[in-house]
Amino acid sequence: MDQYTAHNQTLDTANDAQLEAAPTRSLSQAQGQALLARLAQDDAFRAIYAADPATALLSIGVPAEVIGMLDRKCLRERQLADKAVFEALLRDMRSQTTSVAMAMHVPRLSFA
Question: Biased composition, Polar residues: where in the chain (predicted)?
Fold first, then answer.
């Protein structure tokens, strides 16, 4: 291995360590649902997301600042699961949201 390659590998390792130590962020619930819906239904979006997740996330309105704080592994090229898998995840996410919302009890005041 030449000096140039060794130096670049050292820089890559240092950059990886800095990125791993940097604070990360996740998508909001609404952004997550929008992402799952598109992955479950939209073949063109799926192709973009598989090749370049950051571009796909920008296209559904996720701010660049949020994308910049996502775990680096989330932004790598990938092979996607079948649309049915994303549809099931979306249904599950929506049912959990509904369950939480329905469990909320509004306080009642009684003036007797």
Answer: 1-16
Q: Which two tokens stand for residue 2?
A: 């030449």
- In tens digits, the chain (112 residues) has pLDDT values of 555 454 445 445 445 554 455 556 889 888 999 999 999 999 999 999 999 999 999 999 999 999 999 999 989 999 999 999 999 999 998 888 666 655 655 566 666 5
> What span, in angstroms and rounded, lies between the C-alpha atoms of 87 and 103?
24
Contact call for residues 53 and 74 (beta carbons, < 8 A): yes
Burial class (CB in 10 A: 0-12, 13-18, 19+), 56: buried
**Dihedral through CA 50, CA 51, CA 52, CA 53, nearest 10?**
10
Q: Tokens standing for 11?
A: 């820089």
